[in-house]
Predict the structure.
Amino acid sequence: MDEELYQAFITESEESITQLNNSLLSLESNPDDTEAIDDIFRQAHTLKGNFGAMGFDNAATVAHAVEDLLDEIRHERLDVTAERMDLVFDGMDLIVEILHDIEENGESTIDPTDTVEEIRAAVEDGGDAGNSNTAASDEADRESVDLDSLAADCVDTDALDATTLTHAHVELDAGQMKGVDAGIFLSSIPEDLDVVGANPSRDAIEDGEFGDGFDLFVAERDAAVVESELDGLWKVSAVETTDASDALAAGDASAAADDAPATESDAEGDAPASDGSGQSADGDGAVDGDSDAASEDAPGVNDESEGDADEAESTESDEEPESGKEKKKEARSISAVKSVRVDVDQLDELHELVEQLVTSRIKLRNAIDVGQTTALDTLDELDKISSNLQNTVMDMRLIPLKKVFDKFPRLVRDLAREQDKRVSFKVEGADIELDRTILDEISDPLMHVLRNAVDHGIEEPDVREENGKSRTGTIRLSARRQHDTVIVTVEDDGSGIDADAVRDKAVDKGVATREELDQMPDSEVYDYIFHPGFSTNDEITDVSGRGVGMDVVKTTVESLDGSVSVDSEPGEGSTFNIRLPVSVAIIKVLFVQVEDREFGVPIKYIDEISRRDRVQTVNGAEVIVHEETIFPLIRLREALEIDSPEPDDGMVVRIRPDDRQVALHCDGVTKQEEVVVTPLQGPLSGVGGLSGTAVIGDGNVIPILDVSTLALPADGEQAMREFDPSQLPDTAEEAAD
């Protein structure tokens, strides 16, 4: 199998399954959602066709069974119930399992028989009567069809130069690949049969969008010949033909009535009066009755009197459609390709080359003497080109959160069903973009947070009702962009986190002493839920109780240079905030100096730079005061264990409070620069206060600080707990003093 085709098949199938799951959830919550129904059948048909075309019949069989069950629902022969939707979702899960098997082994040996039989049984148990009635109804409908009207809709009788028209209703014994069978049938129709119309359209027939059969109109062949030619073609089970030539006469009469002058029309209308037809100037029946008589004589007259005009019009009409086709073709060629798929390995290689280019650019600038004007001008041009290339590559790596978010509605639905809970799941900000590397890693942490929200957060319906809440809980997953950071929030309106239960568990685990925990505010105690092996659920279930999950959230997020925090209100719910960089690798940093060494602080974390004289003492701790908020001071010399005397002066870098409510003290700041960050590997990966390293222009390696893990002095933590804004000086002059 062609590797490129194989990968495209896997990717498109995964996208179709995700979209189909979400549309099924929409249908389950709103059975009257016609848009969801339409999208479900588009996606299911695509899945079935793709699996069948690639030769994976087991998945195609499941998709076909699911499609049949949903077809009963679409035609209102079956109602949407949780049990039937469970069967549909079971079918989707099996398709996913087969797809993963194909991805790993190149083929699948999974037997879908049991699942397919369950789905088929649901169709037969609930739809037998409906199916028979529908068959009878379809037959009755065909008998009552007005062939003239149907032909007028399907055949351009005005442009058709024919004297005979035959209608054929064809029924196919189509298999699982309905569209494929129909396509083979259409392609096998003999060339001497001029098919001038179809109901539904040929495209729809080839897509399998028809019931047991469809209608064809054939020109210049009588009914017996058409039936003989079509009977015996691919998958044909029945052919019923009818002479529909009257539709041509009706079309000609209509055209004549539209084109003829009023006097001619009156004259033609008088002609049949001698037959005793009882003509009436305003009688509809007389006009309809006259049309046939007039149409029998009209062709000869029209051919004589309007031959030249018809010939001229024919020439015009032949040219115009050709021109229209050319315009259509040109329009398609201009807008056909708007995006391309890029292999991730190639994208990563391109990204590495850009990183090398940025590093070389920095080295080159440092190597050039300031006096070399021409060289500097050339370097400025290189700066511009490489910056644009860098921005383009970084944008190429950005992928909407939708790729991850779309998987979660189904997860929440299934967890809620397992626990007999009712949950309304809302998603916002799915169009916010993140670097592909970060997006790949964030899926599992978000899954754990959502599982926690369903299991620990949302109460059972009866409990919620007793507490004066709606029986249906709400979980909201949202994302928003803030500078170079994306904040992903998961909030629920459940029971909240019991801080005392967390304290008890922390003591049992030996994580902290009772005295330390009692002194901590609840907001700090909540952070213990991220400790490895920590769980407040005493009962082990498939969802929780083993103490794994939330520690994965913290570990993974911090490895991405992000942070996670939790806030809760007992009885009201909980909110988890996950802060992530939009991109890792190339970032802009501020160089800070400690003794004779330099460190990098990511610019995205910095809120303000000031002199040391702004440092105050509150509750015995050194702090920076900003807008009635204190930022405890971290002296980098102490945090990084640099053994040298503290200078009398220095600079203070205040960190954004959303990232961490602290300020960093250093000897000085030197410059800002873009650098390529390499994460710490091996034994160094767990070093507190450092997130990676960067090679700068002179070849030196600069450590990049991790502001979230720099050690905060104990008096600073205590000061934040006991802080009272009334303790602050009343004026700026007092603060300076």
The CA atoms of residues 539 and 545 lie 6 Å apart. The two ends are 78 Å apart (CA to CA).
